[in-house]
Sequence to fold (32 residues):
Amino acid sequence: AHLTAPDSRQTRVGCESEKDDFNRVRLTAPNS
Fold:
């Protein structure tokens, strides 16, 4: 998640944000 998510979002919460971001990326990003 930290790879695609912006710095502001990554440093915002951290572990919790990463999980949420990962879920969002999974829905938006294709099956890589």
In short: The first helix runs from residue 7 to 12. The radius of gyration is 9 Å.
